[in-house]
Request: fold
Amino acid sequence: MKTKGRNFVLYGSILLISLVAPLVLPAYGTQLAFLWVMVVFALTWDIVGGQMGYNSFGNVVFFGIGMYVTAVIQRNMHYDIEEYVHVAGRVDTLASGEYLAGLFLGMGVGAVVAVVIAVILGFCILGMGMRGQYFGICTLGLGVAAGELANGWEYIGAGSGLVTPVFPEGLGVRGAFFYYIFFILAIILYMTLKWLYSGRFGLAVNAIRDDEDKAEAMGIHTTRYKIVAWCISAFFLSLVGGGAGHLIGFIDPTEVAFAGATFGVWMILMAILGGKGTLWGPVIGAVIFHITQELFWTYLFGWQRVALGALIVGIVVFFPQGIMGWVRERWPERFGHRVEEKGVFSVSEGGGA
Reply:
């Protein structure tokens, strides 16, 4: 009962703070919204990189796919494409209903497209038995290739980028509006992963991480689980990408949509900082990383990238196990681990040593 009571207080406090945050800090609506984007980044990367042990450097591909598909569908639903491109999106503002219809339809279609592409890539890459550093290098190439492809595709703006439709005034403040969308997505993702990790899926992906050959010998269909894990990651990354593009208002192929050097790296670092392979670790890592990054951009202007680089080095060198890993070693009893003093032998109730 005490554990349930503590969990109730913890989750209730987080929920309350999250709901009132954009109301108390309206000037930081965009930054707060991106906090939940970072949480989704870290949690989705950890499905494959932490729980399953496959370090992917190309998950940002699905983020960019969702971003472009959502923007293109909303553009094509309500505007003449040639006119829209000619005036760089500076056309009549959509009504609230039209904006919402295009946004949510685009996010849904983008998620389906991302999952389909994840299945195809999964069969081509994971189905071929690619593992370890070879899988990481291959996924890194996917991110670069996607950026270059978008950079030369005129239909989606090519290197000039794509302007998203103007946010209608009838929906309130843009930052707060997308804050709650991303917050809901993060909650759904967290609860989905908590349910999956507590069942057969969690056991299977952890077995793949520990020893894939033994997992296959035990009858686990490893390729199927690997592809499913990647599809879950793609689904939620695409959804948050569709909203993030409209929050930013402009989609650049290499600096925003397929930004492997920033978003692609950050999602890995946040999971490592908090403790990959855990449920709370990526969330904690995302919060700490995002707040620290915003402070660097505010108070270390001109040196923010140097400070961020130092932070990245510090994370890799001093927190290889992450915050949750350090806490687990420091207070193992809080995680259900029994610790016995050296030289002392305990006898269980059943009589075994």
About this structure: The first strand starts at residue 162 and ends at 163. The chain has 14 helices and two strands. Residues 28-255 form one domain. The two ends are 30 Å apart (CA to CA).
